[in-house]
Amino acid sequence: STHQNNINHVPQQQAFLQNACPSDSVLHNGECLSSGFAIPSTTESVSFQENGTLSLDESRALAARAEDFHWTFWPECYSSATTPEPVCVFTDQSFADGRGIFIVTTSKLAHQMLKKPAFADPKNALNRINKHSNPPFIQYEFPGKGRGLVANKTLNRGDQIFASTPLLITNPVSYEILETERLRLAHRGVDTLPPSSKASFWALLDHFKGDPVDDRINTNAFEIEIDGVSQYGVLPEIAMLNHDCRPNAAYFWDEETLSHYVHATETILPGQEITITYINNERSREKRVKNLKANWGFECSCSSCSAHPFFVAESDARVEQIAELAGYLDDWTPASKATPEMAEALLSLYVQERLHASMGVAYKHAAEAYSSFGERDMAIRYARLAVEYVVLDKGFRDRDVREMQSMAKDPSMTWSWKKRVGHKRANAGCEHAH
Ligand SMILES: C[S@@+](CC[C@H](N)C(=O)[O-])C[C@H]1O[C@@H](n2cnc3c(N)ncnc32)[C@H](O)[C@@H]1O
């Protein structure tokens, strides 16, 4: 379908430069070409320097000359029949005190991103971010899973391990242009990063051994949401953390500061590896292993994946029971069988299963279950714990965090208060309806 591609994929230099070329043409290789112009199929080219892109010096000069133009380089862009606008690479070398960032997206979305406090008010937004001196860990090489981070001091639950901004963000729209063009944008992005960030990028693991840039992105990217769109971000610090199905740290993405935060979710002693989860762990071993293989391409070697079949079966049974109890607790109909005792069983299963990093949801269930029977103090107890845990994996601005903060203040003002008073409460002794 090379023909098809030549017709549909007209490489365009950014639409912003409206005034640089007449409206019926595009800027290409420093020249205005009629928009019917199509460069030769890039599939035949080996070098990314070919095919007439602006040199870095040219695009830097062009960006400097343009009025009100935030980015360090004039963006290289490509479009296809399905892209709403050309997809371009936008680099800001001065972002986050010179750490730099490149973003592969449309100009409209790139412009929208500039409104985030991380770009608009970095002094305040980023004052706690990217501070990597005196880290609470050292890097260590583990046989079978590569580099990882090991605590060099005791970390308590809630301690920040690091918080950092991505070196790159790619929007899913970039998959709508030709693969060769998508790769050119990614390579261009890496070439435009400041030297130390470029070095951190190249030091990342390339697990799949394909295109060296794409491979590093695929091996290390995390899903991040910006303005309702799920995108990929690469952060060299968090990329050093290995996966464990029973991790001792959690991370969240904060859209306002465009930062990724990592915190301990339990006590981590010096010498212990700091781990996060790459997947949803509240599933059977078989499903977890399959998911890691399919999406990350590795055989999980964590202790709960490599346990003896007896222990695997026990663990799977607990995970299944967690889902069953959560199902009851989520039932808010008059026929609901949910009780606070169920929530206690749920909490106990989370602890036994060592799912500390995801305890937040269990504490929320417990807080609501007690609130629904009008038990104020127990609701407060668990609402406080829910806030403490949920924030570590959902972030400061999460809805559940706010809800649990309100419950901790005054359960009687929340929607669940006394919702189930009068429901049968098995094992609780007192069964009379109020
Ligand atoms: C984001 S990187 C983590 C850092 C990596 N170990 C390194 O040296 O750069 C992800 C890669 O680490 C390895 N890895 C992470 N967790 C693992 C685990 N639980 N079992 C086996 N390999 C793992 C896999 O090769 C995976 O593709």
| Mass-distribution shape | globular
Class inferred from helices and paired strands: alpha+beta
Could you tell me the number of beta strands? 15
Strand order of the largest sheet: 3-4-5-9-11-10
The residue fraction in helices comes out at 25-40%
Rg of Cα set:
26 Å
Reported for the largest beta sheet, the result is: 6 strands, mixed
CATH-derived topology of the largest domain? Beta-clip-like
Under CATH at level 1, the class of the largest domain stands as Mainly Beta
Task: Please write the string of helix (H) and strand (E) elements.
Answer: HEEHEEHEHHHEEEEHHHEEEEEEHHHHHH
Strand content: 15-25%
**What is the number of domains?**
2
* CATH homolog superfamily of the largest domain: SET domain
* Tally of separate helices: 15
Q: List each distinct ligand once.
A: S-adenosylmethionine
Mean pLDDT: 88
Domain SET: 135-279
InterPro entries: SET_dom, SET_dom_sf, SET_domain_protein, TPR-like_helical_dom_sf
Protein name: SET domain-containing protein
Pfam family, one: SET
Describe the protein in words.
Keywords: Signal. Helix 14 runs antiparallel to helix 15. This protein is globular. Helix content is 36%, strand content 16%. The chain has 434 residues and is of the alpha+beta class. The protein folds into 2 domains: 201 residues, Beta Complex (Beta-clip-like); 105 residues, no CATH class. A 6-stranded mixed β-sheet has the order 3-4-5-9-11-10. A 4-stranded mixed β-sheet has the order 6-7-15-12, with no helix packed on it. A 3-stranded antiparallel β-sheet has the order 8-14-13, with helices on one face. The termini are far apart. It contains 15 helices and 15 strands. The longest helix has 21 residues. The relative contact order is 0.08. Strand 13 and strand 14 form a beta hairpin. The structure holds S-adenosylmethionine. The site of S-adenosylmethionine has 18 residues, from strand 7, helix 9 and strand 12.
